[in-house]
Structures are given as C-alpha cells and as structure tokens.
Amino acid sequence: MKKFIIPAALVLAAAVLFSGCASKDSANSGAASTHPREYTIDLAESTTGTTINIPFNTYGPNYQSDPACNFTNFIKKDKPQAGDVIHMYWKFSSNIDIPLVKISLIDPTVNYWLELAQDDFAVILDVKAGEIYEGSKDITLVNSVKGEFKAYITYDNEDFLKEGYAKVGAPAEFTLYDVEGVETTDVLKELPADAIATGPKTINININEIAAFCNIVTGHPWVNGVQIMSEIENYQADVSYQSLLEDAPEPGDTLVVTWRGRADRDIPVLKCMPVDHSASVGWWRIMINNPDDEDAIVIARDIKAGEVFEVSKTYVIDIGAESTDCNLRIWYDYDKETDGPGPCAVIAARD
C-alpha cells in the first residue's frame, strides 16, 4: 500500500493539497442543523458501491467517474453548507496506470456541475495498476449542497495536462476499499427517533406558487444521444418543485398538484407526470409505473386560449427519486396532420 505527498511546486501551481491518511474519530462530529460543522466520508461507503467506472467524458473532455461516489442519502436531513469541513478518506486500486488522479466534491444538480470547494480537491500522483493507495484530505466548502453530494474521480484534466502530466487516453475501473477506523457521517443517526418521519408523506405542489409563468416549448426527439432538431416530438415544459422538498420523494408518497392558469393557445389535452431529474439517473426517470395510461397523466382537456383552466391531480409515487432534484414534466402532443398546435405560454390566474 502506497501513500503520497504532493510536491510543493504542484501545491503552488494548482492550489491543491494531498494529506496523509491518519484516521480521525469524526464520524459524527458536530450537531445536526448546527453550522459550520464537520462531516466524514469514506469513498468506499457511498451508495454507488465499491466498483467505480471512469469512462471518457464527452463534455470535458477528460475521464470522469460515472456514476460518481454518492453520499446524498447520508446527508439529506442536514446538507453540508459553505464553511463546513469535509474529512474525505479513500483507499483504492486502479486497473491502469494514471500519472495524476483528482477527486473533487460536486453537486451536479446545480447547473449540471457545482464545485463545492472550487480549487480545493485531492490529488494522487503516479498511480500504478494493481497497487493500493490510501489517503485523506480535509476540504472546506465554499458552496452549499443544494441537491446531491458526490465525489467525482477524474484524470486527463486539461489543467494538469498543461502542467506536463501525461495523458492516459483510456478508461479505468477503480476498486474501493473501506478505510479502517473511519465511518461516514450519517445524519439520520444523529437525530432522535421522533425527529425522523416514518411512512408515506404528502407533497402539495401549487404550480402558481413556483412557476407564475410557464413556457411550453417545442420538444425534439433524442436518437442515440443526439437531438433531432428537424423533427417535433411534442410541446413540453419542466417545472422544478425542488424548493418544496426536504427529502427525495419515496415510493408510496403522494403528490397533490394544483394549478390555475391561462394559456395563450388552445390545448386539446394537457398532460403531466413526475420525473426524477437527478444526475444519478441521467437527468430523466419517470416516477410512476403507468406513464402511458391517459387517466394517470391527463390534467386538463379542451383548454381555450385566454380562458382560465384549473388542475387538481394526485400522483402516488412508484419509483423513488435519488435526490430532491425533481420536476413535473408538462406537455401536450404534436399533431402531424395540422403541424400544430405549436408552443404556448401559461400564466398564473389569480382572479
């Protein structure tokens, strides 16, 4: 097993620090809902599991863990905030040689990529295939977790290539091992039993209160990861109700959706369904089992332009969300025969 200290030159150039691996008894440091506080994470204890694939990232381009090490469920009752300290531990082996590995704390639900500590991350140098590397780093957050709390493993990052580190140019697979004496902070363990809600919950969503203006735009189909802009699939809008959630919706929970609005176009049939927009599920997972059943998704019929329409719809969640990053997908169908009806805007009707 090998441990490495980053050279001082790299610390100055990249503003990074790789610390040793002395264990800390801080699994439950601080009190829930009191900040600033401390959290501990062991990468091997994430809900993602102990095998981490690191494929090519077309948006980078670099190589990036997919899925990442996910700690969202551990902290959903008390999410880390700016100023909090994360004690991050790792013990891993790689199946290929990598000159430089980077581990960053990210919330991928905020504009797809929010660096929680910006220039503060871990770096492991000169990783050799089959050897075990163990270490830790204390990271002070400069941004708060809004949706998901994840640790991403990357390499072939542009900034380090510019520093002269060799490009790998190939995917990797990491195996994670538990770090002895380290326990990931689980906020639920800190709370008294009567403070933890049990059983299904009801989530009331008044669309007027979260989206006074709803722009329903032309939706184009996706084929093999490419959007076909020459074709029309439907007319759609995504309304986020993340601001209403403390916890991710779970199976058995009920969503009660109400809406009172005016559209600027006739809409024959308006539909809606709850969708998990979490990065963990590729930004799209329908949360009910019967999305093809019109009775389950139709929320209004025969809407006339300029006239008030009202919605009252109840959904029972069949498939839980990975985080609070949840949307209502609202849409109506494209009519090929009439090449319509076209996109529209809906404003809240308060009179």
Describe the protein in words.
- With about 350 residues, this protein is mainly beta.
- About 5% of the residues lie in helices and about 40% in strands.
- It is built from five helices and 24 strands.
- The strands form four sheets. Strands 13, 14, 17, 18, 19, 20, 21, 22, 23 and 24 form a ten-stranded mixed beta sheet that branches.
- A hairpin with a 4-residue loop joins strand 3 and strand 4 (about 60-65).
- It is globular and about 65 Å long.
- The model is unreliable at about 5-30 (pLDDT under 50).
Comma- or semicolon-separated keywords:
351 residues; globular; 7% helix; seven-stranded antiparallel sheet; 39% strand
Question: What's the quick description here?
Answer:
This protein is mainly beta and 351 residues long.
Q: What kind of sheet is the major sheet?
A: 10 strands, mixed
- Tell me roughly what share of residues is in helical segments: under 10%
Number of strands: 24
The end-to-end distance, rounded to whole angstroms, is: 70 Å
Please mark out the parts with pLDDT under 50 across 5 or more consecutive residues, or reply none: 3-31
Tell me the layout of helices and strands:
Blueprint: H1 8-14, E1 38-42, E2 51-54, E3 56-57, E4 62-64, E5 69-70, H2 72-75, E6 85-94, E7 98-107, E8 114-115, E9 122-127, E10 132-140, E11 150-155, H3 158-162, E12 172-176, E13 202-206, H4 207-210, E14 213-219, E15 222-223, E16 226-227, E17 234-240, E18 254-263, E19 267-276, E20 285-286, H5 294-297, E21 298-303, E22 308-316, E23 326-333, E24 344-348
Parallel strand pairs: 1-6, 13-18
Antiparallel strand pairs: 2-12, 3-4, 4-11, 5-11, 6-10, 6-12, 7-8, 7-9, 7-11, 14-17, 14-24, 15-16, 17-23, 18-22, 18-24, 19-20, 19-21, 19-23
